[in-house]
Amino acid sequence: MKGLAQNDDRFQGREGFGQWEHALQAHCGAFQCEPPPGREIAGFCGQIISPAFDSTRVGARIISNSPHIHRSHHDIRQDDNDCFFLVHQASGSALIEHGEQRNLLHPGDLVLLDATRPCDIRFQGMAGQLSLILPRNTVQRLASGRRLLLNRTLRADSAPGRIAGALVSELFESSSDNSEETEAMMDALLRLIRPLVSEDMRQPSSCAPRTQAQLLNKVRQAINDSLANPELSPLSLAQAMGCSLRTLHRLFAHEGITLGRYIMERRLERCAETLSRHTDKQKISSIAFDCGFSDLSHFSRAFKARYGQSPKDYRTASGN
């Protein structure tokens, strides 16, 4: 199912529930959904949003106040989804029963579900999940021939869980048309979720620690030197460093941050440094452009999310 259009429509009420359930099935396979009980169905609200990157069926962002989503043996026989769902709890919480285990997911937690086994997902109020479909052979390679473990949780408060969740979010939100970059991010994500499928907690590395540290320092310096360039991207960095995108994404995943997020943080820090100095005569838009931002509204939102103040208020508080 290639090229599913991203859908930002909100489904509401009784009719909207049926449309939402159909959209979920189109993106993720045979699942049955329970509407809010009785008259509460009038208050149903949900969204199904496909990832920004184009691929074969890859999952969806699922948002709703449907109390129960489940996949039974009958549903499993209805489709041929011999795959796994990597579920990232984006908001709210959900109780998941899969096999003989039950897990309560909180925001940021991840779990891997086998599509060939029944599962129950019970949302607690309005909740959102990112569900990424992974082929079975991809997951089996992660287990390295060991027995696959089911329904384990990678918690948001762990380093692998934090960066894996950030990578899933970037995969869903990135509008990059570069398949190589998408594959590199996926490769880094798969290495991080290895603990979900196998007891083997080792994280193999493609280069020696000293070589990694040297490359990391070079990449950081290249980023600092190129912040003003709005075309600065993981791909351009890989080309400049003479290494693969996979290597760069693994390198920053090991540091507990995605490469894209690191670039954004450095740009925001550079803007904050400039605003806190003698910049009263320089327009804020000029400062943003000098730091590589080409969209002023995006810059303002990102700056406020990072510093808790608008750029204008931040400069005023700094005495300029």
UniProtKB/TrEMBL annotation:
Q: Name one GO molecular function term.
A: DNA-binding transcription factor activity
Q: By its UniProt entry, which PROSITE patterns does this protein fall under? A: HTH_ARAC_FAMILY_2
User: Which InterPro entries does this UniProt record tie to the protein?
Assistant: AraC-bd_2, AraC_XylS_family_regulators, Homeodomain-like_sf, HTH_AraC, Tscrpt_reg_AraC-type_HTH
- In terms of domain of life, where is this protein from? Bacteria
**Keywords, alphabetical:** DNA-binding, Transcription, Transcription regulation
Where would I find the HTH araC/xylS-type domain in this sequence? 217-317
Function, in words: Regulatory protein of the TOL plasmid xyl operons. XylS activates the xylXYZLTEGFJQKIH operon required for the degradation of toluene, m-xylene and p-xylene.
State what protein this is by name.
Transcriptional regulator FeaR
